[in-house]
Amino acid sequence: MKEVVIGLIGAGRIGQLHAENLAHLPGVKIKTISDLFAEHAKKWAKKMSSIHVVSNYEEILDDPEIDAVFVCSPTDTHVPIIQKAALRGKHIFCEKPISFSTEETEAALQAVSKAGVKLQVGFNRRFDKNFLKIHETVQNGVIGEAHIVKITSRDPEPPPVEYIKNSGGLFFDMAIHDFDIARFVTGSEVTEVYACGANLIDPGIKAAGDIDTAVITLTFANGAIGLIDNSRKAVYGYDQRVEVFGSKGSITIENERPTSAEISVEGGVYKDKVKGFFLERYQEAYALESRSFIDAIRYSQPVACTGYDGLQAELIAKAAQQSLATGQPVKIGRPAAVHTR
Fold it and tell me: Is 80 left (phi over 0), alpha (psi -120 to 50) or beta?
């Protein structure tokens, strides 16, 4: 088995998660981690054997032994890192979104295409067994033609306001997962977006220029209609549900709970609360997406979630922002075709 050597850029919460998942994959070596706060990263990396920690990611890109990079740094750094990594022949895994700008994302994809390297975007929900079941069921025609898609995605607590100031807002840091899943489960592109939003949870979020509650309506190229509802705060846990209704039936996935036990007593019927947050709910999916990327490199296979997929989700997010600002539906124009691997 060919060893795949990895450099990880950004050692925050998501970078650490990817590093720990990669460490459990056979034939994978994390050689170097870069983070602006290198001393802090070194303390965490002590439990990861033989990993070099640097503050400048260029050291990773200049290392000929490193085959691929995991880009887990802030979104506004993604595009220049992707362009430089592609130029040096590194395969790239990039956390979502690639950028907040369609033009910048297209420039990154062009660099990847020109270099002939692989780029996988981190939409981890595609690797969750429940979402995969919906995707396969719809694509195999079991429920006929998709007519209505309903996606509920609600966080248990809002993120810090300081995070929101640099996150791109609810449509880019939260709902973008739902936009990707909408495309994934229907197999159809979104052609029109209508969004409405409100501030019902934290006045600090409004002061930061964002919303905390939203409902988004999607129109798909195949004629289906989608409805997404988002909230920054669901007091009962991490709420993740999807239904696809079709001409021959429907398929629904419900929230995951620590156990499926149901207790029935005189005072009522009780179940475990839903899982607490994304790291718990999608733990297995994160591990599988890393394995999928490594397999794509090792066996020269296409990646499971391409740069084109990342771009489409960003186009929907941008349209949602425009719709919220204008109060009108927004048509989505298709970008120029970009080859992805």
Answer: alpha
The gap from C-alpha 183 to its chain's centroid, in whole angstroms, comes to 13
Nearest to 101 by CA among 80, 76, 82: 76
Evaluate whether residue 337 is within a structural domain. Answer: no
Backbone angles phi, psi at 110, to 5 degrees: -65, -40
Nearest Cα neighbor of 197 from 214, 218, 179 is 214
Residue 285: count other Cβ atoms within 10 Å of its Cβ: 20
Nearest-5° angle of CA 232, CA 15, CA 238? 25
CATH number at residue 148: 3.30.360.10
Closest CA to 182 of 141, 221, 212: 221
Here the tokens at position 166 are 């640099």
CA dist., res. 309 & res. 185, Å (int):
13
Whether omega for the bond prior to residue 329 falls within 30 degrees of 0, making it cis, is no
The residue written with tokens 């909230």 in the block is 231
State which residues form the domain around 173.
127-281+311-322
What is the Cα–Cα distance from 277 to 78, expressed in whole angstroms? 25
pLDDT by residue (tens digit) across 52-94?
889 899 999 999 999 999 999 999 999 999 999 999 999 999 9
Which residue type occupies 2? K
Q: Measuring CA to CA, which residue among 34, 27, 28 is closest to residue 84?
A: 34
Amino acid letter at 248?
Answer: K
Q: Name which of 106, 208, 125 is nearest 162 in CA terms.
A: 208
Residue 339: pLDDT above 60? Answer: no
What is the number of other CB atoms lying within 10 angstroms of the CB of residue 206?
15
Q: Evaluate whether 332 touches 192 at the Cβ level (below 8 Å).
A: yes
257 and 108 assigned to the same domain = no
